[in-house]
Write a structure and sequence with these properties.
The chain has about 725 residues and is an alpha+beta fold. Helices cover about 45% and strands about 15% of the residues.
Length: about 725
């Protein structure tokens, strides 16, 4: 009687978490969090997840808007938020600092399993698939993404290999099962937030599909072409449909985002890779390391090409010995193409000019993640070829198993060594401290915003935890009209539009624009000479912690000043100037002091008055992220300026009835209120929210129906089989 064979998936299911525990076990220490001076976790992600955690546990559900930085902006549809991404489920039940490391570790494990699945789709044996999984787990590119705290990029790094796997599988066996796999994987990839790597993967897959299906067509396999295309389309439509509730609002929002004006300089963002960067294919620190400051461009995680010496050697073997194995030719071409277009050469101008959307993603050097992917896939083919030759030389020898084991252990050992060299954890309190000025502001129960001078007076990533609302911030997907307003406030003139990531307050030329932003306090790392009729010093806080991006946690003195001319979150305009469009509105705002004046976008007379009596009042009685309740009373019809950042997603109810909201002062908003006492409720929802959500719900139901039907058919006995 033959002994039962173990399932092929049992080894990677057990081995990968074990090796992840050895290599990345420091991530699982309780009470500690991943930290580096270059970490986006501290600079951004803890704050974004704090907004989610606070809203969810306050009973408000998903936050559609966040108010902690840039005077407010969309939250759910921001690609960095990932509030509905399934593998960020821990952020719903644990505080962000407690959920962070486990979430990263989970992605590392699942990313390795994805490469194992890819190996199976390439029809490789057990050892090559395991080697691919281990090489992916300890891929230096992924390790550097973890070091840099790329919480919003890790999901796409994790799942884009699975997109290749299910597509290859779909070509081999087209049908409902392949469509379901494409739909599930595609929807998951579209939920990963930053879609840059998914976007690049899509173009490679389109090229592969076109070449493969054209070959089938020429070979007379036209029925197979139709079947494959049909089920791939079904899977793709379901994937897009299930993610429509994110994609449709994001697409509708595109004209509002500053990234739409991205220049070539923003596209490169100071990282134009040259041929010398290819040296990092052989040794990751060939040009230096950010750990000791020897890497001149600092951001090694953006530029390094290394994915392991053993996988690189095996990739070369696979390219030579396995070049006739399908789809080795595609993998070789993919590796060379991704390396070529990652470099700043004339070839990069082709996709920049021809491919839709290519220029919207910055730092094309991130194609090196695709290069590592193709290299690891070729390494699996290389090991398969080596083992086949060893097995042929000695059919019953243990040598192939010893060679494979040695290579897997070499990869794991090198990866674990680099992991312990680059990754560090610290106590939660070090990355989420409680500065003295935080307690000072907590004692002020009014609704206000804060203007920090410079980038590092208040760490942008700490504002949400301290329940502060800043007018500056760190956000790659910021609103264009707010950037225009902010630039006018600083310089007093219109600046050239370009995409930006950091929005820092350096100076103020237009105090009226600062007042209208509800800025009650100004903070600085040194004493300021401010207009005495506008500001009064209210305190100095010595030796305060601050996170200086790329330097780490430091100590500074913080000086606080109260703005005596601050305008409340809602206030009546004394005079209204109507501008027919954005350009005219911008001109009116640039014209001069807006104290008491509201420049309103719309049609009608060029100017008018909104006069009232001394008894008129308006105040905010309830406020949360994306939500305001206002009580207002006036003797006549008046225009109420609302110091929230304008977005067409804002909706208003006046005494329970819809009220039109108009854009005011370029970046703010307001509404005409009739005479009398009223209750105004403002709430933000993503654009086309109900329509998009309905499409996603319908698509999810269609997916589940197809899944049930497919499962039932698989369970049905075949004809003639007892």
């Amino acid at each position: 009687m033959k002994a039962a064979r173990l399932p092929h998936w049992l080894l990677p299911v057990c081995l990968i978490p074990l090796l992840a525990g050895v290599g990345y076990g420091l991530l699982l220490r309780p009470g500690e969090i991943l930290y580096s001076p270059h970490s986006d976790i501290v600079a951004y992600h803890l704050a974004a997840k704090e907004v989610l955690f606070r809203s969810w546990h306050a009973g408000r559900g998903l936050p559609f808007w966040r108010a902690d930085q840039l005077a407010g902006g969309p939250a759910l549809t921001n690609p960095n938020s990932l509030y509905t991404y399934p593998l960020h489920f821990l952020f719903y039940v644990l505080h962000p600092a407690d959920a962070m490391n486990w979430t990263i570790w989970l992605h590392l494990v699942i990313g390795a399993w994805a490469f194992y699945a890819l190996g199976r789709s390439l029809d490789l044996g057990g050892w090559p698939c395991v080697l691919m999984a281990v090489a992916a787990l300890f891929n230096f590119k992924v390790l550097m993404a973890v070091y840099a705290g790329w919480l919003s990029v890790l999901p796409s790094i994790t799942f884009f290999p699975l997109l290749f796997a299910v597509t290859l599988r779909a070509l081999k066996s087209s049908g409902p099962g392949s469509a379901l796999a494409v739909a599930a994987t595609g929807a998951l990839c579209l939920h990963t937030g930053q879609l840059q790597l998914v976007y690049y993967s899509g173009w490679f897959l389109v090229a592969y599909l076109l070449v493969t299906l054209a070959g089938w067509w020429r070979a007379g396999r036209r029925q197979e072409v139709g079947r494959a295309v049909g089920w791939l389309v079904v899977g793709g439509v379901l994937a897009i449909g299930m993610a429509t509730y994110l994609l449709l609002p994001l697409a509708a929002e595109a004209p509002l985002v500053s990234r739409g004006q991205a220049s070539d300089a923003f596209f490169h963002s100071g990282h134009a890779l040259g041929a010398r960067h290819l040296l990092t294919l052989l040794y990751p620190e060939a040009l230096g390391s950010p750990l000791d400051g020897s890497y001149p461009d600092v951001e090694l995680w953006e530029d390094v090409a290394y994915f392991g010496l053993v996988p690189l050697f095996l990739a070369l073997v696979g390219a030579v010995l396995g070049r006739r194995r399908p789809p080795a030719g595609f993998l070789i071409a993919g590796l060379l193409t991704s390396l070529l277009f990652a470099l700043d050469t004339p070839f990069l101008r082709l996709p920049y000019a021809l491919l839709p959307g290519f220029r919207l993603f910055r730092l094309p050097g991130r194609l090196l993640f695709l290069a590592a992917f193709f290299g690891i896939a070729l390494a699996g083919i290389g090991l398969e070829e080596l083992l086949a030759r060893l097995q042929k030389a000695r059919p019953r020898s243990w040598r192939p198993h010893l060679v494979a084991t040695a290579m897997v252990l070499l990869i794991a050992g090198e990866g674990a060594a680099y992991a312990h060299r680059y990754l560090a954890v610290v106590d939660h309190a070090e990355v989420a401290p409680a500065p003295d000025y935080g307690r000072f502001f907590a004692a002020d129960r009014t609704l206000f915003r804060i203007a920090p001078v410079g980038r590092y007076t208040v760490s942008y990533g700490w504002a949400a935890a301290m329940k502060l609302q800043l007018i500056s911030g760190y956000e790659p997907f910021n609103l264009r009209h707010y950037q225009q307003y902010f630039g006018m406030m600083q310089s007093g003139r219109e600046r050239r539009e370009d995409a930006t990531v950091w929005t820092d307050l350096i100076r103020v030329a237009r105090w009226d624009l600062l007042d209208a932003l509800n800025v009650k306090y100004l903070l600085a790392p040194f004493p300021l000479q401010l207009p005495p009729d506008r500001f009064e010093p209210v305190g100095s806080f010595r030796n305060q912690p601050v996170f200086v991006f790329y330097q780490g946690v430091e100590r500074i003195d913080v000086f606080a000043y109260r703005n005596t001319h601050v305008l409340p979150r809602v206030f009546w305009a004394e005079r209204v100037v109507v501008a027919p469009d954005e350009n005219h509105m911008r001109s009116e705002v640039l014209r001069g002091d807006l104290s008491g004046v509201a420049v309103v976008e719309g049609t009608g007379p060029t100017s008018g008055f909104s006069q009232g009596s001394t008894s008129d009042h308006a105040k905010v009685v309830e406020a949360a992220d994306g939500y305001l309740t206002v009580e207002a009373e006036s003797q006549t019809s008046r225009f109420l300026v609302i110091s929230e950042i304008w977005h067409p997603g804002w909706r208003a109810l006046l005494d329970g009835r819809p009220l039109p909201i108009v854009r005011a002062d370029l970046a703010l908003m307001g509404a005409w209120l009739p005479a009398g006492r009223h209750r105004l409720v403002l709430e933000f929802r993503p654009l086309h929210w109900r329509t998009a959500l309905s499409i996603s719900v319908f698509s999810a139901c269609a997916f589940l129906t197809l899944l049930v039907v497919h499962f039932v058919r698989l369970r049905e006995p075949r004809a003639g089989v007892p």
